[in-house]
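Final report, Chapter 2: Outcomes

The project's central promise was a pipeline that accepts a single protein chain and returns its three-dimensional structure in a standardized token representation, suitable for archiving and comparison. That pipeline is now operational. To close this chapter, we reproduce one record exactly as it appears in the project archive, with the input sequence first and the structure output second.
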Amino acid sequence: MEGGKSALLVVDMVRGYFDPQFSYAPLEKEDAARVTRGVQSLLQSFRARNLPVIYTQNYGRRTAWGPVDKKNPFLRWQEENRKKVAGAGFTRKTSLNTEGSPYAEVHDAVGPREGEIVVHKPRYDSFYSTHLEVILKGLGTENLFLCGVNTNNCVLATAYGAFCRDYRVFLVEDACATWNGPELHRAAVSEVAASLGWVTACAEVEAHLAPEAPAKG
């Protein structure tokens, strides 16, 4: 890999997917545990080197005209017709995923530290209608490591967004999962490898990064 400054983007690691108190949109238990461990490992690696960690949250905002996320025709159609999410046994309920709801909070096990940036995004792509590109440019980021959920939705859309802005895209496969099941997870990983960037694993990330920053005395 060429040089350049790296950043970690933690995509939508929210309680609605991981917290057992919720039953609306949980990942499979094995996937949830695997991804949580993977993201924890990545956080440790990036923080030890004083490299930027950025989080995203995908939720709707209520306005005078109703919830913003209900404006999307496909999501509205899915919910109104009670269509089950592909690969999952539940229907979409956008009303639960709104600003300020526990569902939308970052999962405590991988939560941000003081000073780490949390970006609200209204759609799958973390660059769409957000300040993410401005943030990354300000940080001098060239290499963007992606982890989180859902692999074939928000993670993949963000990988496309990063590719189109000429970042080096690294998908950390074992720190990603989807509620749509393993087949669509694998398809998204294959798409990244074929067209967008590099697929790597938590155990390999250390080799991509600069040595750890010296301890502050």
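Archive annotation: The radius of gyration is 17 Å.
This record, like all others produced under the grant, will remain available to the consortium after the project formally closes.
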